[in-house]
Amino acid sequence: MADQITDxxxxxxxxxxxxxxxxxxxxxxxxxxSTLGPMGMDKMLVDAAMNSVVTNDGATILKETxxxxxxxxxxxxxxxxxxxxxxxxTTSSVVLTGELMRQAEDLLSRKIHPTKIAxxxxxxxxxxxxxxDNIAVEVTDELLYEVARTAMTGKTAETxxxxxxxxxxxxxxxxDLDNISITRRSGGKISESLAISGILVDREKVHHNMPxxxxxxxxxxxxxxxxxPEFAQQIQVQVSDNTAVQExxxxxxxxxxxxxxxxxxxxxxxxxxxxxxDRFIQEHFAKKGIYAARRVARSDIExxxxxxxxxxxxxxxxxxxxxxxxxKKVEEVQVNDKPLVKITGTPTSDAxxxxxxAPTQHVVDEVKRxxxxxxxxxxxxxxxxxxxxxxGASYLYLSRELKEYASTIGGREQMAVExxxxxxxxxxxxxxxxxxxxxxxxxxxxxxxxxxKGGSTKGVNVEEGGYIDMIENGVVEPLEVVSQAIVSASNxxxxxxxxxxxxxxxxxxxxxxxxxxx
Length: 518
Ligand code: ADP
Ligand code: MG
Known about the structure:
This protein is α/β, with parallel strands linked by helices.
């Protein structure tokens, strides 16, 4: 009797935990679902200080949104992993997870055990991954370009996506992602964005008498202040007479001069400093025709070091010729009346820089995010070598195949595989809905065409309704993005379903608490 009561309680507890988790997953999915696809809506995110970001990038929304529910947090982590490995498909992975949970809710109400559902989802996810290979297409230069365009559709970058897509393909083919640095400059047209082989740094010379161009540059990189050590700066002088003050100033100048000379002695003609450079030293550098920039960002310092082979120095006393890097040319160029440092002809020729331009800071930030993703997606497609038709086509193909596959599996898992197959239709359905089309009509016509020969490349025609051939229309995405989104959604849904109880963890004892273990 007592056992039965505990059992009933246990069941009730798991039912509530599941309901709570399902509700959280569904809510999160519905939150980002309206942003899916080229006609997706933007969201405006506002923080307590009224700073705002306008975006339709699923990853940004999830990153910037305060999410407290533990299950929702787990899903956000999946989306983040998706973003980190594939640079795209975050919204899709969250929408799929939410729909898998909604379908699971239905199966649970029909008394199918959660572990059976979880098992069916995993089986279906694995099978889906294998099936995708059947409709994958080998990449070509043209397809890479379409991948970039597809990745940018529906974002602010869209207006100029041809120009940006060209840059994407150019840089992704030229080098690894690690060697690509992106600089932003507002006040200009998106179409004025450009890529150079070399490095662009958003800095300027510290003294107007410094040269604008240094050829055959010997580059020193310093990550500390170029000035007197702190103790020497803090010495106080008793002002008894003017000569003492004069003497003090003179001796300080001598010390600063020694530091400047130390750098010059190494043979450096260009100095990039991460911190500040003393005014007197700046003047001395200018007199000697040295180019110097200060407060250079750590990421830029690292990129310069890698490309020019300069060692980053923290102790100026130890700077020697061997530490210097090389570039054929270091020059200051004006972009929109503001300077930028351009470093070209470096020994490691892999460095590539992209300058993103747009009218305002908001736009330039959003374009940069879109470009970042697009360039990542293009390298994923380039490295992995395969792409799929977009617009929901591959999801419909999988859905159909999995329904057939389900019939070969016996037991309760079969129903879970069928539910999984139905889940995949949420992608074309949401794409249709977000484009103002009737999702059910669209699905019906798509399902029909997918039963015909050559139908598996048909997806949602977001412009005019109905379906079109996605490959012919250049809507393509990397195989990796789709398979990762599906596999991670099935894994996380299975993991959430296996949670049968939510137990609040005791907070860890803090120093000073009664229960702290001294
Ligand atoms: P995610 O964060 O999942 O990448 P997106 O908002 O970028 O979400 O939308 C991606 C979806 O939009 C993909 O399924 C892709 O195939 C589809 N898509 C992109 N461009 C088009 C288009 N021109 N027509 C139809 N579908 C498109
Ligand atoms: Mg996308």
